[in-house]
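Supplementary Methods, section 5.1.

A reviewer requested that the exact input to the structure prediction be made available. We therefore reproduce it here, unchanged from the version used in the analyses.
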Amino acid sequence: MNKAYPTVQVRDLKMAYGSRVVQQHLSFEVNKGDIFFVVGGSGCGKTTLLKNMIGLIDPIDGEVLYDGVSFYKSDPLTQSELLKKWGITYQSGALFSSMTLAENVALPIQQYTNLTEKQINELVDYKLSLVGLSGYQEFYPAEMSGGMHKRAGLARAIALDPELLFFDEPSAGLDPMSSQLLDELIVQICEALGATVIIVSHELPSILSIGTNSVFLDTDSKTMLDKGNPKYLLEHSKNDKVRHFLTRTSEHESLS
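The structure derived from this sequence is encoded token-by-token as follows.
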């Protein structure tokens, strides 16, 4: 087994909206092949951290490095090349309602490759088969269930075989069985692509069943409380809030 090494490095990151600091002093690493969870209570800045990591919001201070390259200190061309290596999914799936499922998945392939229409169609069929949506090419988003939306968003995110996959609350709105199936699918896709996965979530079953690394954000102190494999932290974290979060029985309990 290859020794793990960081493919993502977050160094002393500070995030804010105007004068309101959301999180600060964030420093952690994501190793190649990780299924990395960003964890914390509602309003602690999990999604804001994700947006800072992918360039949607500029941090106030600190930096994010990908394979040693600082995203925010890079020129626009380098940033664009980094973005092409990433796949991003959002809570709702963010599908274009006026386009069929096949058209949604084909969009990034059409934009960033020179493949023929026949090759694109074959690739779209393959990506849909990976997420269990073969035969749904001509369906529109309005004709699909919530779980199908999640899988369709994943199919589009993996259209270009990304090295990094970012998820924002992938299980939001799903029943426990659908959530478990999505977790299993994420693991399968990660292994098939050799991808590294970063997931924003508060879903304890997902965090403990598939997570290999994590960072815990806190609303009160506005910084990270702990980091590492969630299964290890469950038993060995020195922070009471982290242990409480990982052993909670109520879906309404949180780090905040």
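The first strand starts at residue 6 and ends at 17. These observations are discussed further in the main text.
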